[in-house]
Amino acid sequence: MKILTLNFLTCARKTCKSSPAAFPLHPRDAELEIVETEFNALFIQNILPRVEWDALKGLCTELGLTNVPPEAPEPKELFDTSIKSAGIDEKEKEPTQLTRDLHNLLLETTIQSGKLVCGNCGHEYAIKEGIANFLLPSHMV
Amino acid sequence: MSRPEDTLPPDLYYNDPVSRQYTTSSRIQKIQAQMTHRALQILNLPPSQSSHILDVGSGSGLSGAILTQRGHTWVGMDISASMLAIALQRGTGALPRKRRKLAQDMEMDVEDGIDDKQSNDEDAGDEEVEDEGEEDEIGDDAPCEGDLLLADIGQALPFRPGTFDAAISISAVQWLCQAESSDENDAPTRRLKRFFEALYVCLKRGGKAVMQFYPRNQKERDMVGTAARRAGFGAGFLVDAEGTKAEKVYLVCSVGGEDVTATIEAMEDVEIEGGAVGAGRGREQKGKFGKGEYKKGSKEWIMRKKERMERKGMVVKKNSKYTGRKRKVAF
What we know:
- Chain A: One of its GO terms (molecular function) is protein heterodimerization activity.
- Chain A: Belongs to the TRM112 family.
- Chain A: This is Trm112p-domain-containing protein.
- Chain A: InterPro entries: Trm112, Trm112-like.
- The complex is a heterodimer of chains A (141) and B (331).
- With 141 residues, chain A is an alpha+beta fold.
- Chain A has helices at 3-6, 41-47, 53-63, 97-108; strands spanning 26-34, 79-80, 94-95, 109-117, 124-128, 131-133.
- In chain A, strands 1-4-5-6 form a four-stranded antiparallel beta sheet.
- In chain A, a hairpin with a 2-residue loop joins strand 5 and strand 6 (131-133).
- The longest helix of chain A is centred in the last third of the chain and has 12 residues, at 97-108.
- Chain B has 331 residues and is of the alpha/beta class.
- Chain B has an eight-stranded mixed beta sheet.
- In chain B, helix 3 crosses helix 7 and helix 10 crosses helix 11.
- The longest helix of chain B is centred in the N-terminal third of the chain and has 18 residues, at 26-43.
- In chain B, 40% of the residues are buried.
- The A-B interface holds A 1-2, 4-5, 8-14, 23, 37, 40, 42-43, 46-47, 50, 52, 91, 107, 129-136, 138, 141 and B 48-52, 71-73, 75, 77, 79, 84, 88, 145, 147-152, 155-160, 162-163, 165, 181, 183, 185-186, 194, 204.
């Protein structure tokens, strides 16, 4: 599972939905793997405003990743603006190294196995082969 | 024509052999691809943008592969572990041609057994001759790069608000219309309610969801539509090839934002049904009362009447803030 997806997941239980502790889910015994995907700067630009940066920093600390900027990058930092003046089309803007790093962190770093623990109810969701199991027993729906 | 929903719950129905057969059948692949392309057309996502999409009932990632092709990033949910396992094999390219061969052989062996419990996709399929050589663009080798979750969409969607730009679902929602146990919490209406409420939350404002499904009858279709509207969606149905064997029903939902009717009306060969898609209804009402015909007894009606009487020279009471108001109920 991608770090990006982890940044959007909350506990599935209805009773946890209202609690701030239900987000983010805390990874335990996580095995990380880099899965290369196609680089798409436009997607990074689109999704960045919706990433909870504080939660992301917390997650990365828990996972032992250190290369996270302390502050959420500004949209203008994603593309190299210096060549823009040379009359290059809006679509062909050159993404910066920062964007590539973000792509690497959010989309290519994946959790292969481990557990996700809800900070509120303590329920553990298992991850196997990159797939998290969010099935709940019927009494917990 | 038997429906797979009638036989077993989805997590048990899509076991290893059925899932593999479903995924490797070129006929199902083709129909699924057609429906996914159609759903994306209805979603009408801005072409320059790369979106974050939820695939509800992603199965083995047949629809996901198309999303990846179009440059979108997606998260898939499915209740069948076997289907997800196949998606994994496809994703890593580990499902070799050999396996596909094997599945074909298996198909021959058990043809009689499986044929009569074919899925809806087969039943509703176009009557075209299968051609193994072509239409391989979303074959087993197509990458399936989305994140997958094993989850029951009738329980909850574990996402925080505004996660997705859009959602699609191909042949999945009809499974919600089934009660898997006698527990009242498992009743179809409850499951649909939980699903649509959770979906509404995790879509961003202006987001759209297009869900293709196979309703058993008009009643089931209405039940799904009502559940979507109750959750706050602007929802309407779009029916392709109506009345034929290959009829496809799409539920189009939108969260706030612009109205979807215009988009749909602009497309060809489309009939809009149950037109609860926002503005459509409003226009109708205006047409009825628009030309100076106010509803009898309403404040506007009273004001107009008073004006006319005054012009005729009758004695009319002065207007005040109480004019045209209802009297308080005495008890």
